[in-house]
Write a structure and sequence with these properties.
With about 525 residues, the chain is of the alpha/beta class. It folds into three domains: about 270 residues, TIM Barrel, CATH 3.20.20; about 90 residues, no CATH class; about 120 residues, Alpha-isopropylmalate synthase LeuA, regulatory domain (Double Stranded RNA Binding Domain, 2-Layer Sandwich), CATH 3.30.160.270. Helices cover about 40% and strands about 20% of the residues. It is built from 17 helices and 16 strands. The strands form four sheets. It has an eight-stranded parallel beta barrel with strand order 1-2-3-4-5-6-7-8, surrounded by nine helices. Strands 11-12-13 form a three-stranded antiparallel sheet. Strands 14-15-16 form a three-stranded antiparallel sheet. It is elongated, with a radius of gyration of 29 Å.
């Protein structure tokens, strides 16, 4: 092992899969394995062989995988109390999984030995030694997860050290110290890790932290500074209870701030992999996650935007591009001219803007936000607004009117019908459609009218729909803001609509989503674009 190299051991597929609401399929696990391998992760814990049919199939398919960087590991536990290692079902399942590396956990907390395993302290040491030695005799590389090591050390330091010593003597290549309950604080982590590293001075120590005290990332980093050479964790911090140590924060901290080698140049893929794993896990990505979140390098106040334009270090601790992320300037009533310039610089308007143009855009933003609009999460509506202010917004269609009717038609679910009158070019079309609700019916009717002229809108799908009442004091007559997220299967864009009528607010957001999608597709409008 290189002296400055820190091994990254990913357990998203096993520990991460234990998070509430996550259930990886076989295909999901294989996709994530390929993503992590391309990223350059050293070890990927694919699951517990024999624990369930999915994991059995994953390990079977893993035998044929041609990985570039990572090694697949299988996870299990020590032999049963008073049993023989060679007869142990779990150990033999691990051997049959076909992986070169096997990770097993064993008890290092005397409290667990006596009250969970219900055996003697001596028998537990034998279980650890026998299990590691048996796996080694079968030609396997063995990593030992010292379960509850930190709690064990605090309760009975001599016994906890004897437990990891037993694994090391039996031939375990890595001794991973686990904060299984996630209750250890950084000051304890440093002291105990240094003691363990000194006690097994010729062993390779690792760290496996849980986040129940919200210190898993800090604990992992401190453990490395105290001598650990392997970090175990999950992507996006997925895991049981409060989650595991988040590799998306640990990796850049170690590599970019402390100079350790983790992923090398591949660290630029970190944000992308994080978001792809979120999609596969069917979990909304945490926009506020450090380093990889979409808001991690977002600036709203005009002073901040002005600062980062002059020198990004004024309000950013790293260059977002080093982890594959991007700076984002939010446009709001707190924005100044610097914010507007930075935001518009990323839009290909095809014209040079004057200071008067900037002033007009800023005035319109503040006027619309006073009405209840917000462009923080509606970049598409922002661009369309800018184009409208500058007189260069394409007019793909014009709404002449719409009607929405809902009725029960007797016993049964509520039925909603929308009719729209739309002008496209020189034609006026009247279309009717039914839907699951007013928004769905209206969206379907507008699309029905436009598809003959703009077939590409067939690819546009609403992926999120949010409604917010802006002023609760007005009750049911309050202004409503509707936020719509749309995707064409490759890109996502956000639009917003505001009105006292929720259906009109929905319509405004939907129209912007269609307009922006057509603009992205470089569609030529049937109506002329009016330039200033």
């Amino acid at each position: 092992m290189l002296q400055n190299k820190i091994e990254i051991y990913d357990t998203t597929l096993r520990d991460g899969g234990q998070a509430e609401g996550i259930a990886f399929s076989v295909n999901d696990k294989l996709k994530i394995i390929h993503l992590l391998d391309e990223l350059g992760v050293d070890y990927i814990e694919a699951g517990w062989p024999g624990a369930n049919p999915k994991d059995i199939e994953v390990f079977e398919q893993a035998k044929t995988l041609k990985l570039k960087n990572a090694k697949i590991t299988a996870f299990g536990c020590t032999r049963k109390v008073n049993g023989k290692a060679e007869d142990d079902f779990v150990l033999n399942q691990l051997i049959d999984s076909g992986t070169e590396i096997i990770t097993i956990f064993g008890k290092t907390w005397d409290f667990h030995v006596e009250h969970a395993l219900c055996t003697t302290l001596e028998e537990n040491l034998n279980m650890i030694y026998d299990s590691v030695a048996y796996l080694k005799s079968k030609g396997k590389r063995v990593f030992f997860d010292a379960e509850h090591f930190y709690d064990g050390y605090k309760n009975n330091s001599d016994y906890a050290l004897k437990a990891i010593e037993a694994a090391h003597k039996a031939g375990a290549e890595r001794i991973i110290l686990c904060d299984t309950n996630g209750g250890c604080l950084p000051v304890e982590m440093k002291e105990i890790t240094e003691i363990a590293e000194k006690h097994l001075s010729d062993a390779v120590i690792g760290i496996h932290a849980h986040n129940d005290s919200d210190t898993a990332v800090a604990n992992s980093i401190i453990a490395v500074q105290a001598g650990a050479k392997q970090v175990q964790g999950t992507f996006n911090g997925y895991g049981e209870r409060c989650g595991n140590a988040n590799l998306c924060s640990i990796i850049p901290a170690l590599q970019l701030k402390l100079g350790f080698e983790t992923l090398g140049e591949n660290i630029k893929k970190l944000s992308s992999v994080s978001r792809q794993i979120s999609e596969i896990a069917n979990r909304k990505a945490n926009d506020f996650s450090p380093y990889v979140g979409r808001s991690a390098f977002t600036h709203k106040a005009g002073v901040h935007a002005s600062g980062v334009m002059k020198n990004s270090s004024t309000y950013e601790h790293i260059d977002p591009e080093t982890v594959g992320n991007a700076r984002k300037i939010l446009i709001s009533d707190q924005a100044g001219t610097a914010s507007i310039k930075e935001k518009i610089s990323g839009i290909n308007l095809g014209i040079d803007l004057t200071n008067d143009d900037m002033r007009k855009v800023l005035e319109q933003i503040k006027n619309l936000e006073w009405q209840g609009f917000t462009f923080e999460d509606a970049d598409a509506s922002f661009e369309l607004m800018v184009r409208e202010v500058l007189g260069i917004k394409p007019q793909y269609f014009e709404l002449k009117g719409f009607r929405v009717i809902s009725d029960t038609r007797g016993i049964g679910p509520l039925n909603t019908e929308a009719s729209v009158k739309v002008r496209v070019g020189n034609e006026i079309l009247h279309k009717v459609s039914e839907g699951e609700g007013p928004g769905n019916a209206l969206d379907s009717a507008v699309r029905l009218a436009l598809k003959p002229f703009y077939p590409k809108i067939e690819k546009f799908k609403l992926t999120d729909f949010k409604v917010r009442i802006l002023d609760g004091t007005d009750g049911t007559g309050a202004k409503t803001r509707v936020h719509v997220e749309t995707s064409d299967g490759y890109e996502r864009w956000d639009t917003v609509g505001v009105s006292r009528n929720i259906i009109e607010a929905t319509y405004l957001a939907i129209v912007d989503s269609l307009d922006y999608g057509l603009l992205m597709q470089n569609e030529i409008p049937q109506n002329k674009i009016v330039f200033r």
